[in-house]
Design goal:
Blueprint lengths: L1 E5 L7 E2 L2 E2 L1 H18 L3 E5 L10 H17 L4 E5 L6 H6 L1 H6 L3 E3 L3 E3 L2 E3 L4 E4 L3 E5 L17 H16 L6 E6 L1 E2 L17 E2 L10 E5 L5 E2 L6 E3 L15 E6 L7 E6 L6 E9 L1 H10 L7 E8 L7 H9 L5 E9 L6 H5 L3 H5 L3 H11 L4 H21 L3
Parallel strand pairs: 1-4, 4-5, 5-6, 10-11, 11-14, 12-13, 14-16, 19-20, 20-21
Antiparallel strand pairs: 1-17, 2-3, 7-8, 9-10, 15-16, 17-18
This protein binds manganese (II) ion.
């Protein structure tokens, strides 16, 4: 069974107030070409279809039209799409039955009545080839209770395997789709380090029933086990400046009893996300270099500035006026303060503008230092603070 594994499209993202529709169209065009040349038996999209829970009508239409077009073009390819934490599960589920009529599987939930799961819609047969167990993002509480031996996730995924075992009488290859964080993954590009996060799971929870686990949620493509059976496909288009790694989709060949063979296909962005210049310089120099950026460079630009002094109040206007005559999309200034605030008093006697530039961790670390709390102790406080922030981010889909 050959699958095209992708996730985290984040359609409809408004990036520093810029609309990215033409970039999605550019991605869709490449995806169609990939399908045309590889003829996968199935395409699985493991969550975060949209960037927000209520995407605009034009973005929803773009998505619907594209999926239908792809289905018409390659009707032998089964399309399976699940929702992620950025999507509204119930909104994605509205058209579940309508999509089903078109032979396409778009799922926001796992049905459950009186505590009993019904995996029938989530178990998708790829005719003559295998099965896909399509599990959208669901929170831990919904997964049921832990017992003496198993975490809620382990119990849940063993139930999916049990269900699949009854259906898969010919012992064909099986793929599990889900949207979650696996312990030890590389989270580069995400806003906060979510390590130790309540939703992070061990890579053993999926059990042995699946020949390939097609993950979504983490934006950097990577494998989570030595065998390469458990993988994130990563984002096809960067959604933050810190995702400075290649983006693409994966074609995965899966045979029962042997390890999957994976080939990564890069998606070329219509616009790059550039941190410019690569090494930080002072604002004056950064603006000078920015002015020399070729007029036809259409990248998103984050100016990379490091200096001792505060940035002047009009720094964004200065940068925007340079960008006005260019094709680029100026977004923001990444500002690193150099060697200022050296003595302890300065650590906490901040002006309001200095204060507003700091993140909670920086504020806390200044406070601990100024209060004379030893590093060994403040490290513990800092990790607790990070955990709090991670839980907050997770609960608020940040
Ligand atoms: Mn995502």
């Amino acid at each position: 069974m050959k699958i095209l594994h992708t996730s985290d499209w984040h359609l409809g993202q408004v990036f520093y107030s810029y609309d990215r529709t033409d970039e999605y169209v550019h991605f869709f065009h490449q995806l169609k070409e990939i399908v045309k040349s590889h003829h996968p038996d199935a395409m699985v999209v493991s969550g975060d279809i949209f960037d927000v829970s209520s995407p605009s009508s034009s973005i929803m239409r773009l998505f619907t039209d594209f999926i239908l077009e792809l289905h018409e073009m390659e009707d032998g390819m089964t399309i399976v799409i699940t929702s992620g934490n950025h999507d509204s599960a119930s909104r994605i589920d509205i058209n579940r039955n309508l999509w089903k009529k078109a032979g396409i599987h778009v799922l926001g939930n796992v049905k459950r009545e009186n505590g009993i799961y019904d995996f029938s819609d989530n178990t998708i047969e790829i005719p003559g080839k295998g099965y896909v167990m399509a599990i959208p993002y669901i929170n831990r509480a919904f997964m049921g209770n832990a017992n003496n031996e198993n975490t809620p996730e382990e119990s849940f995924f063993s139930m999916t395997a049990e269900y699949l075992g009854k259906v898969n009488v010919d012992n064909l290859p099986c793929v599990l789709m889900c949207h979650l964080t696996v312990d030890g993954c590389d989270m580069k590009g995400h806003k906060t380090g979510m390590i130790g996060n309540i939703n992070s799971v061990k890579n053993t929870i999926f059990g042995k029933a699946y020949d390939y686990v097609a993950l979504g949620h983490i934006h950097k493509a990577q494998q989570l086990d030595e065998a390469g059976r458990i993988r994130y496909s990563g984002t096809p288009i960067a959604v933050s400046f810190d995702e400075d790694y290649p983006h693409g989709v994966s074609i995965v060949d899966i045979e029962k009893g042997s390890l999957p063979s994976v080939s990564r296909i890069e998606i070329k962005p219509l616009r790059e996300l550039k941190t410019f210049p690569e090494k930080p310089v002072d604002l004056k120099k950064a603006l000078k270099l920015f002015a020399k950026l070729p007029d036809n460079d259409n990248s998103y630009i984050r100016l990379n500035v490091a200096q001792e002094n505060d940035l002047p109040a009009d720094c964004l206007e200065l940068a925007s006026s340079i960008a006005a005559d260019k094709d680029c999309r100026f977004c923001i200034i990444k500002y690193t303060r150099l060697n200022s605030l050296q003595n302890e008093k300065e650590m906490i006697n901040l002006s309001s503008s200095q204060f507003s530039e700091l993140n909670p961790n920086e504020i806390a670390s200044r406070f601990f230092k100024a209060s004379g709390i030893p590093d060994s102790q403040s490290d513990i406080y800092m990790s607790l603070l990070q955990q709090l922030q991670d839980e907050y981010s997770l609960e608020n889909n940040l």
